[in-house]
Specification:
- It is a single chain.
- By secondary structure, the chain is α+β, with helices and mostly antiparallel strands.
- It is rod-shaped, with a radius of gyration of 36 Å.
- It contains 9 helices and 7 strands, in the order βββααββββααααααα.
- Strand 1 and strand 2 form a beta hairpin.
- It has a 7-stranded mixed β-sheet with strand order 2-1-3-7-6-5-4, with helices on both faces.
- It starts with about 25 loop residues before the first strand and ends with a helix.
- It is about 50% helix and about 15% strand.
- Among the domains are: about 140 residues, CorA soluble domain-like (Beta Polymerase, domain 2, 2-Layer Sandwich), CATH 3.30.460; about 110 residues, Magnesium transport protein CorA, transmembrane region (Methane Monooxygenase Hydroxylase, Chain G, domain 1, Up-down Bundle), CATH 1.20.58.340.
Length: about 375
C-alpha cells in the first residue's frame, strides 16, 4: 500500500478537534426506504438532511465527498454523535475498531480494493455510525465501493428493504469484508508468479517485488486483525443492538474475516519462504560461478607451473641448464605434456561429479537393493 498522509490535530489540541480534508460544501446522499418505499436524494449540504430524519423508515446518510469540518459538525449535531467519534471519523487513519455510545454505535473499517495492474492497493478509511432508524457512512474521498448496497435497496424484493438500520450496518460491513477476498486472491496469484520467477532466474527486480508484496501483506494484516476483534465483539454483544435475526449474518461475516486472516498468515509464511528461496537461488548461482572459476584456475595451475619453470633464464654453459631446451622437439613435447595434464584433470573432475557428471556420493556405498536393481 502507498504511504499514507496522516491527518491529526496538533499536540495539545482540544479533545475532539477535527482535521478534515474537505474545503467546501460537501454533498450527502440521502437514501430513505422502507418495505414499500424508497427515496434517493442528493442533499446539497448537511443541513438539508434534517428533514429526512425522524420518519418511519430507515435513513442512510452517505457523505459523497471528502468531508469538511463544518459538515461533520452539522451531522454530529443532527444525530447527537459524540465529538470524539466524529473526530475519529475525520482524523485518519484510525485503527479498525467498534465503540458503543449512548444511542448509537461507531465502527471504523479499512476498505481495500484492487487498483490497475502494477499499482499499489487502494485503501481508505470508512466510518459507519448507526442508531435507531438511521445509518451514517463517512469515507476519506469519493468512492463507488458502496454502490452494490444502493442497487440492492433499489430492488423492491431486497431483504434490506424489510429490515432495520442494524441490518443495513451489517450489509455495509459485509461489503467491506468481501472486498478483501479478491485482494487476497490476487496476492496468491502474485506469489505463484514470483515463485516461478525465483526458480527461473532471480534478479534484483524480483527481490524488490517480493519485499513490496510483503509490505502489502503486513498492511492487510494490520487492517484485518482488529476488524476480526471488532466483529467478535459485535457477535458476543448481548445488549440487543443487533436484532436476533441479524446476529447469524454477523457470525457469517466474522467467519469470512477469520478466513481472510488464515489466508494472510499462509501467504505471509509463503512470502518468507519465497524470500529465503530467492536468497538460496542467488547463493547457488554464485557458487556455480565460483566453481567454474575455481576449476579453470585449478586446471591452469600446473600449466602455469610448467610454463614458469621453462621460462627461467639460464646461460647455455650452465651445468644446471634444462636439458629439454636442447631437444629438437622440446617445445611441442612440453605442449603435449601440458595438454595431457589438463585432460587428466578434467577427466578426474568429471569422475568426481564436479563438472555436472553423474557419480555416486563419496563414502556412500549403494544398498544391496540398488546393486541388484536392473537399472
Amino acid at each position: 500500500m502507498p504511504h499514507r498522509r496522516v491527518r491529526r490535530p496538533r499536540p495539545g489540541a482540544v479533545p475532539g478537534a477535527i482535521v478534515a480534508a474537505g474545503t467546501g460544501r460537501t454533498r450527502v446522499q440521502v437514501v430513505s426506504y422502507g418495505p414499500d418505499s424508497f427515496h434517493d436524494v442528493t442533499a446539497a449540504s448537511a443541513d438539508d438532511c434534517a428533514s429526512f430524519l425522524g420518519g418511519h423508515g430507515v435513513v442512510w446518510l452517505d457523505v459523497l465527498d471528502a468531508p469538511d469540518a463544518g459538515t461533520l459538525e452539522t451531522l454530529g449535531r443532527l444525530l447527537h454523535l459524540h465529538p470524539l467519534a466524529v473526530a475519529d471519523a475525520a482524523n485518519v487513519p484510525q485503527r479498525p475498531k467498534h465503540e458503543a455510545y449512548d444511542g448509537f454505535d461507531f465502527l471504523v473499517l479499512r476498505l481495500v480494493r484492487l487498483g490497475p495492474p502494477g499499482t499499489p492497493l487502494d485503501s481508505e478509511q470508512l466510518s459507519i455510525f448507526w442508531g435507531a432508524g438511521w445509518v451514517l457512512t463517512i469515507g476519506e474521498h469519493p468512492s463507488d465501493a458502496l454502490n452494490p448496497i444502493r442497487e440492492r435497496l433499489r430492488t423492491g424484493s431486497s431483504e434490506l428493504r424489510a429490515r432495520g438500520a442494524d441490518f443495513l450496518a451489517y450489509a455495509l460491513l459485509d461489503v467491506v469484508v468481501d472486498n478483501y477476498f479478491p485482494v487476497v486472491e490476487s496476492i496468491g496469484d502474485r506469489l505463484e508468479e514470483l515463485e516461478t520467477r525465483v526458480l527461473g532466474r532471480p534478479d534484483r527486480e524480483l527481490l524488490v517485488s517480493i519485499h513490496r508484496l510483503r509490505r502489502e501483506l503486513a498492511s492487510l494484516r494490520r487492517a484485518v486483525w482488529p476488524l476480526r476483534e471488532a466483529l467478535s465483539q459485535l457477535v458476543r454483544d448481548g445488549s440487543g443492538r443487533f436484532s436476533p435475526a441479524t446476529v447469524p449474518f454477523l457470525r457469517d461475516c466474522y467467519d469470512h474475516a477469520v478466513q481472510i486472516i488464515d489466508l494472510l498468515e499462509t501467504y505471509r509464511d509463503h512470502s518468507a519462504s519465497l524470500l529465503e528461496l530467492h536468497l538460496s537461488a542467488v547463493d547457488l548461482r554464485t557458487n556455480e560461478v565460483m566453481k567454474v572459476l575455481t576449476l579453470i584456475a585449478t586446471v591452469f595451475l600446473p600449466l602455469t607451473f610448467i610454463t614458469g619453470l621453462y621460462g627461467m633464464n639460464f646461460t647455455p654453459s650452465s651445468p644446471w641448464n634444462l636439458p629439454e631446451l636442447r631437444l629438437r622437439y622440446g617445445y611441442p613435447l612440453v605442449l603435449l605434456v601440458m595438454a595431457a595434464i589438463a585432460g587428466a584433470m578434467m577427466l578426474f573432475f568429471r569422475r568426481k561429479g564436479w563438472l555436472g557428471g553423474r557419480s555416486d556420493p563419496v563414502g556412500i556405498e549403494p544398498s544391496p537393493d540398488e546393486k541388484d536393481s536392473p537399472d
